[in-house]
Amino acid sequence: MEHLYSEISRLLAPLHHCTALTGAGISAESGIATFRSKGGLWETYDPAIYASIEFFRKDPSKYWTIRGDFIRNYDSYQPNAAHYALAELGSMGILQAVITQNIDGLHTKAGSTNVIEIHGSLRHIYCLSCGAKFTAPHVPEGLPPYCACGGVLKPGTVLFGEQLSQDVLLQARQASATCNAMLVIGTSAVVQPAASLPYLAQQNGAKIIEINIEKAFPDADYFLQAKAGIALPRIVEKIKKIRQ
Ligand code: APR
Asked: What pTM value is reported for the model?
């Protein structure tokens, strides 16, 4: 495994146009449940009921059941070593963009600057009737919470069956098509369009480096089987030594 760290660090050290694609696995060490790995959210909750826009319109309490606590305790969730390592790769001029499927805001909290939240974020909540905007953790009580106008509140996340923001998707595609290496971190790589982004990068000549506790992306050039909170800080340290 040591040689793999050295090879990946040597590859990344001179680069200036890397992109990261992250999934729930990078936030696992911040105590946030993943979806499909062991103990994941979808083992307990059916996403068709708890995370689809169709069901939200019928019964918004379901989505608020799985996301209300996170929103109301938003400030208590902290980035882990993996988020901070990616932020450091950004300040070193190596990482140009972080495309994340996560809605927890932890990349931004860790200091990453160009964060492309393709599934939106729990940070902002909107009234579906009057458009009033709320910011976590400041939302009215209630399951679901309602606006003073009587409208129901919905977090600014992309539920199953909802369109992604085309502007955000364009940014993600551009960051994938122009990078010379993509770090694919903590994602099962099954949900589109995120799962197609590494292929877009590869078609444009990028090397794909997967960091995961189990292999999820079949066509990676490198696969580091490790927790993101262990692997990424080690890569940053090795790059610093190479750059000395
Ligand atoms: N370090 C690295 N990888 C990890 C860690 C860890 N500490 N813990 C878990 N993983 C990996 C798992 O092996 C798995 O491959 O993270 C991945 C998590 O996969 P999912 O739970 O499917 O999460 P994700 O890929 O982000 O899901 C994509 O699906 O339900 C939708 O909108 C939701 O954004 C989400 C999308």
From this structure: 0.98
